[in-house]
Structures are given as C-alpha cells and as structure tokens.
Amino acid sequence: MLAYIVKRLLIAVPVLISVVFIIFLIMNVLPGNPIEVMMKEKVKPAVVERVTREMGLNDPVMVRFFRYIKNAVRGDFGMSYKLNRDVGVMIKNAFPNTVRLALAALLVAWIIGLPAGIVSAVRKDSAIDNIFMTFSLVGVSVPVFWTALLLQLVFGYYLKILPINGYATWRHMILPAIALGWASAGSVARLTRSNLLEVMRNDFIRTARAKGLRELLVVARHALKNSMLPVVTIMALQISSLLSGAVITESVFGIPGVGRLTVDAINSRDMPLLQGSVMFCTIIVIIGNIAADISYSLIDPRIRVK
C-alpha cells in the first residue's frame, strides 16, 4: 500500500508541473499588461516599464516558470499583485470556508442521493422512482449557477427566509450547499439505483430470498453492500471536486473561499494568486483520486492496489 501511494505521488509531480505551465502559457497569451490592470488607472509608460522590470515580468516565460517552481518547492508561492499579500497565507485563510461549503454540500448529496437511489431501485418503475430520477436528472443537467440564482430568487428575495450572501452563520450555508450538492446528489442517486438493480439480479440475492429473508434484510445485508463500490468511488471523487471546484457557487453567494480567490485572480490577472490557487486545487484532486483507489481495497478485500 505504501509503495502504491509513493508511486502515485511521483506520477503526480509531472502532472502538477504541467498544469502550472499551462496556466503560465494561457496568462501570457492573454492581451494586456497585468501591471496596468493592477493599477486600474492611467499611468506613465515609464512607470509601467519600471514596475514590470522590478517584478521580473519582462523575463522570458521559461525563466519565470522555473523561478516559480523553484520558489514553490520551498513553500514560497509569491505575493499577490493586486493585494500585495502572501499567496500561501491567502489560500490558507480561504480554505476553511471552502471546506465548510464542501462538507455541507456533501451532506446534502449523500443524505438525499443514497436514500433516493435505494428507494428507486427497490420501487423500480413506480411513481416514486420516476419522481426521484426526474429530480436527479434535473440536478445533474441544470448548471450550478442557474440553480444558485433560482434559490436566491425564491428563498432569499420572495420568501425572505434565508440569507443569499455571506457566510457568517450556518443559515448562510443552506442555499450554497443545496445549489452545489444537488448535482452530486443526482449522480449518487442514479449510480446507486443502477448498481443496486444490477446486484439484485444475481443468484445470491435469489438464494437469500429463497431462505425466507425479508426484502429489507436482503437489500441492506446483501445487495447494498455489494453495490457500493462504484458509489463510494464517486463519493470520494466528489470530495476532491467540491473542495477544488466550488468556484461558481462561492462567487454567486459571496463566500471568500479558494474558488472565489481564483475568479478574482483571473479578473485582475494576478498571476501568483492564480497559480497558487490552481496548484492547490490540483493537489486536492490528486489526493482525492488516490484516496478513491485506496478505498477499493478497504471495501472489497479481493481488490489490491499495486
């Protein structure tokens, strides 16, 4: 197991470097000078040239890229162009807000998705199955930003029962968690239903029923356990994706998390902040993928990671 984790981490290093390099290229292709964007006012060309030279922005791309990698290895992710603050500290301060949002969204996804998938499989082709699968399909298909704006309009503007912006109390997390977790709940419900239906066609399920076990015990003790491997996999991947991908939700609801930092960095062409945010999100995704692979062997002893 330890050898497998070390191997995956070694493979992840070139992936991480490639992602950072792609961001470098994209930001250099975009028109405009980040110094002019940062100052947001007309300044003399001589001042822009001097500041650009002092910050090393006129150096070749590869020189700046390797300089950044060298500093990042030592834990130095640079200073934000716009705020003149340490990027590592900014990400550290924003990450807890993203964690709270991701955990709340996961709670919504798992509490709704798992029961909905199980009930839909047990009541296949019934009215409740059609209702659950319709809501699941809508959750998977509708963009997160549209869901977020609709929730704000209904519960925040018309009904005025929930706040639509900020993160001060637990009530502020309800609408963002529903907006972000609905899509994940739909995926969990549909995957749980399809895998449970497939397992329930096997011979050992028919044997359990022939022994006289009640349907509830057959589903809970035999069918559900053997159908959870793909579901747990997608749940593990959802953790990393929600931690790293809550960009739209954080922007719509005004939550100062890592996703919002990324959006602000793109708008202001704040290269160090954008690179640090993308690198951090990439690391989260890599760790999530490794955790999902390891969970295979923990759930099913027949599977061994190598």
Largest sheet data: none
**Structural class by sheet pairing and helices:** mainly alpha
| Amount of helix | over 70%
Our measurement of the CA-to-CA distance between the termini, rounded to an integer number of angstroms, reads 7 Å
Instruction: List how many beta strands DSSP finds.
Output: 0
Overall average pLDDT? 81
Please tally the helical runs, counting DSSP H or I stretches of 4 or more residues. Answer: 13
CATH topology of the domain at 87-299: MetI-like fold
**CATH level 4 superfamily of the domain at 87-299:** MetI-like
Silhouette:
elongated
Low-confidence stretches: none
Description:
The chain is mostly helical. The protein has a domain at 87-299: MetI-like (MetI-like fold). Helices cover 77% and strands 0% of the residues. It has 13 helices and no strands. It has helices at residues 2-29, 34-39, 45-54, 61-73, 87-122, 127-141, 144-158, 174-199, 203-210, 215-245, 247-253, 258-268, 271-299. Helix 5 runs antiparallel to helix 10 and helix 9 crosses helix 10. The longest helix has 36 residues, at 87-122. The model has no long low-confidence stretch (mean pLDDT 81).
Task: Give a quick set of tags describing it.
306 residues, mainly alpha, MetI-like fold, 13 helices, 77% helix, elongated
Put the structure in a nutshell:
By secondary structure, the protein is mostly helical.
Topology:
Layout: H1 2-29, H2 34-39, H3 45-54, H4 61-73, H5 87-122, H6 127-141, H7 144-158, H8 174-199, H9 203-210, H10 215-245, H11 247-253, H12 258-268, H13 271-299
Helix pairs in contact: 1-13, 5-6, 5-8, 5-10, 5-13, 6-8, 7-8, 7-11, 8-10, 9-10, 10-13, 11-12, 12-13
